[in-house]
Design a protein that fits this description.
alpha/beta; five-stranded antiparallel beta sheet; 21 strands; 26% strand; disordered N terminus
Length: 425
């Protein structure tokens, strides 16, 4: 980065504001108790930051060799007055970072130079006796850039339509024709997440012809197909089936895509149907090469009040994740991204407001995770939306006008980041 670019980027960073976000694994004091737990407030364990990030990134540092480093704020809580905190970067244990204590709050600053930095805090009493140790890990994604991903869930009807009407080319399909127009106008790349069969079981992927394979392959640089679920119903399918059936369903859809569209057209989605899944099923995804998963509306709660997480994201991480673009779960080695907008859920006249909310939030603007659902495009669907394409077009125009680069899942820097972090585990 040139010095002028460095200064411009640094000037764009706002003054640090400490927020006190709950920390993964930290206990929350019960009502009526005065003493907070010993914990880090920031950086949150698994936080992913970059040069344009807001808190806890406070500044950019240019070292003598011309390399950029990030200065971040560190803060946390101690359970009472009169206690001290020793703070170190785990890679430099001999160097203690300066710590300020204000009542039951401790603060410090540190410089990030590596992809992953672990900070360890030790609580000391007045006699310097150790009373506890905590740690937090922050991740610097160094090759990040403003980008967006667009995925469409619940696809099956357009394939049934093509198979029935035998269009001369794929792009004669009204559905694919529209996506092709968006690609030509806005540079959009899109992933269509597939069901194996229709809800009525009157069509499945095995009935789709392979006569369009060359055309699928010719468009694979912007149009991908991916696994979503066997069918739309029942709800929460990955809670109702075990690992063997999940693996069978995934292989079946993947094999059919390879048959009629070629392996070049297949990608690994990061949006599973409903997003609810058993821990043992999550292991199947990891074994199949999944690195990222995306979702929204955390947590799901059933009518009886029972809590259901998405993708096994722990409840302690949800308050942080809802206010940030992404979070890395060290427990299972998966990176989670938050969906910024789902077109069928946001009315046309509210779409720009939702996009701007993410765009003007430094912690959420870097990666725009966007999507919608196929069925709302079709007039025969009971909840058909006449303005569905208008909503999508408005979103894609916003991305182009605000200089976001469209990407496919395999092009996302998050994937390489996960591989690097898994190797370090």
């Amino acid at each position: 980065m040139k010095r002028r670019e460095f200064l411009q980027c640094g000037a764009a960073l706002s003054p640090l504001a400490l927020t006190g976000i709950p920390v993964l694994g930290a206990s929350v004091p019960e009502t009526g108790k005065k003493d907070p737990p010993f914990r880090f407030d920031q950086p949150f364990d698994g936080a992913i930051v970059h040069e344009r990030y807001g808190d806890p990134v406070s500044d950019l540092v240019l070292d003598p060799g011309g390399s950029i480093k990030l200065k971040i704020a560190i803060s946390g809580q101690i359970p009472g007055a009169g206690l001290q905190v020793e703070l170190i970067n785990a890679k430099e244990p001999q160097k203690k970072l300066p710590v300020k204590i204000n009542g039951t709050r401790f603060t410090s600053e540190a410089i990030l130079s590596d992809t992953q930095t672990e900070f360890i805090a030790t609580l000391l009493d007045s006699q310097k006796a150790k009373k506890g140790t905590i740690r937090t890990r922050v991740i610097w994604i160094k090759n990040s850039y403003p980008r967006y991903r667009f995925q469409v869930d619940d696809n099956i009807f357009f394939l049934q339509d093509i198979a029935k009407k035998k269009y001369k080319t794929l792009m004669d399909s009204p559905y694919l024709k529209k996506w092709n127009q968006f690609h030509n106008r806005f540079g959009t790349k899109v992933v269509l997440n597939l069901f194996y069969s229709t809800p009525k079981n009157d069509f499945d992927l095995s009935k789709f012809p392979d006569t369009y394979k060359e055309e699928w392959q010719a468009n694979a640089h912007w149009l991908k197909l991916a696994f979503h679920a066997r069918s739309e119903f029942p709800d929460h399918p990955f809670l109702n089936i075990g690992p063997d059936q999940l693996l069978k369903d995934m292989d079946q859809i993947e094999n059919e895509i390879a048959r009629f569209a070629g392996p070049e057209s297949y990608t690994r989605t990061d949006l599973l149907h409903w997003g609810s899944i058993r821990p043992e099923n999550l292991k199947v995804l990891i074994g199949k090469g999944f690195k990222t998963l995306s979702g929204s509306n955390w947590p799901i709660r059933f009518k009886n009040g029972e809590y259901l997480d998405k993708y096994q994201v722990p409840a302690s991480a949800i308050p942080y994740f809802e206010e940030n673009d992404s979070w890395y779960n060290y427990e299972n080695g998966l990176l989670f991204g938050k969906i910024d907008l789902c077109c069928n859920r946001v009315p046309l006249d509210q779409t720009l407001d939702v996009l701007r909310k993410s765009y003007y939030d430094k912690r959420q603007k870097e990666v725009m995770n966007l999507g919608t659902h196929e069925q709302y495009f079709w007039p025969f669907y009971k909840n058909y939306m006449k303005d569905h394409w208008d909503r999508v077009e408005l979103v894609l125009r916003f991305m182009l006008e605000h200089n976001y680069q469209p990407i496919l899942p395999e092009e996302d820097p998050w994937n390489a980041l996960v591989l690097e972090l898994r190797k370090k585990k």
